[in-house]
Design brief:
heterotrimer; A alpha+beta (328); B alpha/beta (207); C mainly alpha (243); B: 207 residues; alpha/beta; Rossmann fold; 5-stranded parallel beta sheet; globular; C: 243 residues; mainly alpha; 10 helices
Chain lengths: 328, 207, 243
């Protein structure tokens, strides 16, 4: 018992140091990302909280299922603790995401697929808590809220499937969310097939040339309805073989990148990217990001266990009151 | 076959929140036996009967119904239980016959109109089968509860306040029902009327 | 003893009634009660009618020349009218059993799956009536152009199936709670979000007169949603229906 307690104390201390390190690294270690500037640093907070939210929701559903299976009060406490701490992380992910979106794209809310799913998740958690507070009988409260939690979990795959069809733009770096994008990009040639399409944007490769150690593509882009026509000049770093400048499509939040070039034949692989793509290809960013994921997961586990223990203790106290009422 | 029916309660406790109304009730009844559960208001009689019927979950302990070599929990043996209680409500917007016909179908019984009418006759509601329950007096409603509980001829009959709202002829009906149940099954009666303790082979007094 | 012992008594005390016959009996019982009391029917019909009238009074007939997004706006309004009318009526089937204290009698007599299926069927009948009424009023009073009526009907039917599949178990849950009305909408809405998105977009395509190739996707999603939720409900209903 004593050794276990000391271990728990040490783990808590380590967690504190670890999280402090992450906050420092967030500002000092990560290089500013081209196009996002300092605002890009928020991914160290935003993505891990969102990821922990998913873990919490799954854990809560798991404990609800186990409660219905075995009817043990501890499982219900687990489901509640996971939902409560998950709700906290869900709110944090929503707030950090909205702040980021406002700084970079000038809007707090965009009905982006992930925004939609996290909002619905918040509503489910809120409904779960509302249901619990409306049921007086303890056993019934546990049973019905567990059933609701599982029922809600069944609808989540549909939401995740449906949400991407909802918005015609995304702020998240996932090409699968961009309508009409196959993630593969298109090969265009200056002397052959010049015209191609990415998402709903029509591209025409006007030229390709080497300028110092980068290759520059001259691409004319037309958005649907010919509302915007622009000449973009994405570049490609020949030495590292990576895209360099990613200009933004006119009137859209997507970026145009050159992913590969074949200067001899005048060919270039062009792709549409959501902003933030390639953020993790920097190794310093990547490791800080992974450390943050681990740290937030640890934070979640600590808070979750704390809350679950309190709930179990409350349950025991309620039991003890029962015993006290009986004549000795 | 009928004498292989058993009703076993093992250490049944009932709690409402932090208040414990029953602690550790254990008994074992066989076919032909009648138990009277006596006690004042709030002593947990009704709760105990609801637990036997599976209408309430005990805080502790188990209820087992044995039929032959098979054992069932209360909610698994719907057709083995008949329940009459003041808080048993049938559908007020339906007639007595419609109520009985509905419960017969959901219980999977083959029924004819004449059978249902015969059952209504038996509980003293002959000729009133076409009336809506909303128009029934409390005594008539209690008689219909007996029709509901006896519809499937259950081996375990559970009667909570069996004569409440009944006149003398009603009490005679209860006596008839209990005597007949004694021939093939188990009866559990909850009452706070000392005169009704005569129905029982055993009396369980709750304090 | 009397004739009823041979005819009515069950020789096997744990024999269960045939599921579909019992479910059908629950459905017919609910329809009969509803036709006599008209609690849900009145509420739902009046709610639907007043929503449509309020919309048409407030906006007048909308014309396509004034707004290019008209079909999606109309589809959205139609589904919101349906959704909120459904919230007023679909909980009734279970709430009535609890409030009139009939639930115990039903619990002791019917197997849970039969109760669930009967209520599901009743809710579906009520909702289809509501959807038909709302849609007809909506199309007439707001002068909606329906480009592909058959596809609209198919989407409305599939959407109704999904709506009923999601809300019937919720109705059984909230029937045991202390604040029923508000809770029903609060618990149902997050689960209905994917259904609403698909149904509104599919209905808009139908209003626009698009071909069936635009309807197959939404119909498949709605069918999958319905099946998944009915199966999940059947698994969970036993725990919910326990006293």
């Amino acid at each position: 018992m004593g050794a276990g307690l000391r271990l728990a104390q040490t783990a808590k201390l380590l967690l504190g140091v670890w999280m402090a390190g992450i906050v420092v690294a967030m500002f000092l270690v990560i290089p500013p990302y081209v196009g996002l500037g300092d605002a890009g640093r928020i991914i160290v907070m935003h993505v891990p909280t969102a990821w922990v939210t998913t873990v919490a929701f799954a854990l809560s559903a798991f404990y609800s299922a186990r409660y219905l299976w075995k009817r043990r009060a501890a499982d219900d406490s687990g489901a509640v603790a996971a939902a409560e701490v998950g709700f906290l992380f869900c709110a944090l992910a929503t707030i950090t995401g909205a702040l980021f979106a406002n700084i970079v794209w000038g809007t707090f809310w965009n009905w982006d697929p992930r925004e939609t799913s996290i909002l619905v998740l918040l509503l489910i958690y809120a409904a779960y808590f509302a249901l619990r507070s409306a049921l007086d009988d303890v056993e019934r409260r546990r049973r019905l809220s567990a059933a609701y939690n599982l029922f809600a979990a069944v609808t989540m795959p549909f939401l995740l499937f449906v949400a991407p069809r909802l918005a015609d733009s995304t702020l998240h770096p996932n090409c699968a969310f961009i309508q009409g994008s196959t993630c593969d990009g298109v090969w265009l040639e200056t002397k052959g097939v010049r015209i191609g399409q990415l998402g709903d944007v029509v591209l025409a490769l006007q030229g390709l040339e080497q300028r110092g150690d980068v290759a520059v593509a001259y691409v004319e882009v037309r958005t649907p309805g010919l509302q915007n026509v622009a000449l973009l000049e994405p570049t490609f770093e020949l030495a590292s073989g990576k895209p360099a400048d990613r200009p933004e499509f006119p009137g859209q939040q997507f970026l145009l990148a050159v992913e590969a070039v074949d200067l001899a034949n005048g060919r270039a692989l062009l792709n549409i990217e959501a902003p933030g793509t390639g953020l993790l290809s920097n190794s310093r960013t990547f490791w800080t990001f992974m450390a943050a994921n681990l740290g937030f997961l640890g934070l979640f586990i600590w808070l979750y266990r704390l809350r679950a223990d309190v709930l179990v203790l409350q349950e025991r106290l309620a039991r003890r009151e029962v015993v006290h009422e009986l004549p000795a | 076959m009928t004498n292989t029916i058993r009703l076993e309660l093992n250490d049944v406790a009932v709690e409402y929140g932090a208040r414990r109304v029953l602690a550790g009730v254990t008994f074992d009844l066989r076919a032909g036996e009648t138990l009277v559960v006596a006690g004042a208001n709030g002593s947990g009689k009704s709760s105990l009967l609801r637990v036997i019927c599976g209408l309430q979950r005990p805080a502790r302990g188990t209820v087992t119904i044995r039929i032959g070599s098979a054992t069932y929990g209360p909610s698994e043996a719907l057709q083995a239980l008949g329940w009459v209680a003041p808080d048993l409500q049938l559908y007020r917007e339906l007639t007595a016959i419609e109520n009985l016909a509905f419960f017969a179908v959901v219980r999977g019984l083959r029924h004819r109109q004449e059978d249902l009418e015969a059952l209504l006759d038996e509980v003293g509601l002959g000729g009133r089968g076409g009336d809506l329950l909303a128009a029934y007096s409390s005594g008539m409603a209690q008689r219909l509860r007996y029709a509901y509980a006896l519809l499937h001829n259950p081996p375990v009959l559970v009667l909570d306040e069996p004569t409440v709202t009944f006149d003398e002829r009603g009490v005679a009906l209860v006596e008839r029902v209990i005597a007949r149940q004694r021939e093939h099954g188990i009866t559990v009666i909850a009452t706070n009327d000392p005169r009704e303790e005569r129905f029982g082979d055993y009396v369980l007094r709750l304090g | 003893m009397t004739a009823r012992d041979t005819e009515l008594s069950s020789r096997d005390p744990v024999r269960e009634a045939p599921l579909l016959a019992a479910a059908w009996a629950v459905f017919r019982k609910d329809v009969r009660s509803e036709l006599r009391t008209r609690y849900a029917l009145n509420a739902v019909i009046l709610f639907a009618a007043s929503t449509v009238v309020a919309l048409s009074l407030g906006m007048g007939p909308l014309t396509a020349s004034r707004n290019a997004d008209l079909p999606i706006i109309q589809a959205g309004l139609l589904w919101i009218a349906i959704l909120f009318a459904a919230f007023t009526g679909l909980a009734r089937a279970f709430v009535q059993e609890e409030e009139a204290r009939n639930a115990a009698a039903l619990r002791l007599a019917a197997r849970p799956a039969a109760v669930f299926l009967g209520k599901l069927l009743f809710n579906l009948a009520l909702l289809l009536l509501l959807v038909a009424l709302t849609t007809v009023l909506f199309v007439i009073m707001l002068r909606v152009q329906v480009g592909n009526p058959m596809m609209l009907a198919a989407i409305l039917l599939a959407g109704s199936l999904g709506l009923v599949a999601a809300t019937t178990l919720i109705a059984a849950i909230i029937a045991r709670a202390s604040v029923k009305g508000a809770l029903f909408a609060v618990l149902s809405f997050p689960l209905l979000a994917p259904l609403l998105v698909v149904a509104i977009q599919g209905s808009a395509a139908a209003l626009l007169g698009r071909g069936w190739e635009y309807g197959v996707g939404p119909l498949q999603v709605l069918a999958g949603y319905t099946i998944a939720l009915v199966v999940a409900s059947l698994f969970l209903f036993n725990s919910v229906w326990e006293p």
